[in-house]
Amino acid sequence: MKLGRLNHIGVATPSIEESISYYRDVMGAGRIRDPFEMEEQGVKVCFVDTPGENGTFGTQIELIEPLGEDSPIHGFLAKNPAGGQHHLCYEVEDIDEARSWFEGLGKRILGPTRIGAHGSPIFFLHPKDMMGQLTEIMETPKDDTHWSN
Ligand SMILES: CC[C@H](C(=O)O)C(=O)SCCNC(=O)CCNC(=O)[C@H](O)C(C)(C)COP(=O)(O)OP(=O)(O)OC[C@H]1O[C@@H](n2cnc3c(N)ncnc32)[C@H](O)[C@@H]1OP(=O)(O)O
Ligand SMILES: [Co+2]
Q1: Which residues lie near ion ligand 2 (Cβ < 5 Å)?
Q2: Does this model's pTM top 0.90?
Q3: Per CATH, which fold does 3-142 belong to?
């Protein structure tokens, strides 16, 4: 398996609205996309763009707010009430090959491969097996439609 680009940094927040004001007014973010809900993933999501090289898409900040009782980030926010850096998402060419790679290394994969916030297949690896970092693996989108928002 070959490590691809850093697609996004997941940042958990108790309030996406507050985080939007922060990225707009404190950090001077150039583009903050419309928030949207992913009920099946238990999160409300909002992408903050950072500039990429030569007009390409830069690594995004993925703001995530709990959605529903069973949100997987309630535990994190209970320990970190102000929110903070939650996960890193790396791109790979082939999500199935990547899944077999990590399984072969005995890394715990959290749940099934499913469609993530960019409309591309993703899975998560347990932080305790990944040097303390909750790690999301995402297949590089085949086209740019996921940037439509
Ligand atoms: C998919 C849509 C979107 C996208 O990009 O497409 C997203 O990224 S959505 C992101 C939210 N979804 C997920 O995070 C799914 C995967 N996460 C999980 O299944 C849980 O969060 C899990 C299992 C990693 C942790 O769950 P929980 O906090 O309820 O469990 P524990 O308290 O038992 O934690 C176990 C152990 O791990 C440490 N931990 C928890 N979260 C993190 C983290 N984000 N980074 C690093 N370490 C983390 C926690 O402190 C515990 O450690 P211990 O030493 O045992 O106390
Ligand atoms: Co993510």
Answers
A1: 10, 62, 89, 136
A2: yes
A3: 2,3-Dihydroxybiphenyl 1,2-Dioxygenase; domain 1 (3.10.180)
- The CA dihedral of 43, 104, 90, 18, to the nearest 10 degrees, is 30
pLDDT of 146 > 80? The answer is no
> What residue spans define the domains of the chain?
3-142
- Would you say 121 and 93 are in contact if contact means Cβ atoms under 8 Å apart? no
For the CA atoms of the chain, what is the radius of gyration? 15
Mean pLDDT to the nearest integer, 19-35: 97
136 catalytically annotated: yes
- Residue 67 DSSP one-character state: -
Instruction: Inform me whether the pLDDT recorded for 38 exceeds 70.
Output: yes
Residues near ligand 1 (Cβ within 6 A) = 10, 38, 41, 43, 62, 64, 72-73, 75-76, 86-87, 89, 110, 116-117, 122, 124, 127-128, 132, 134, 136
The bound ligand whose nearest atom lies closest to the alpha carbon of 115 is 1
> Catalytic residue among 62, 65, 91, 136, which?
136
What interface predicted TM-score (ipTM) does this complex get? 0.97
Q: Report which ligand 1 atom has the smallest distance to the Cα of 79.
A: 50
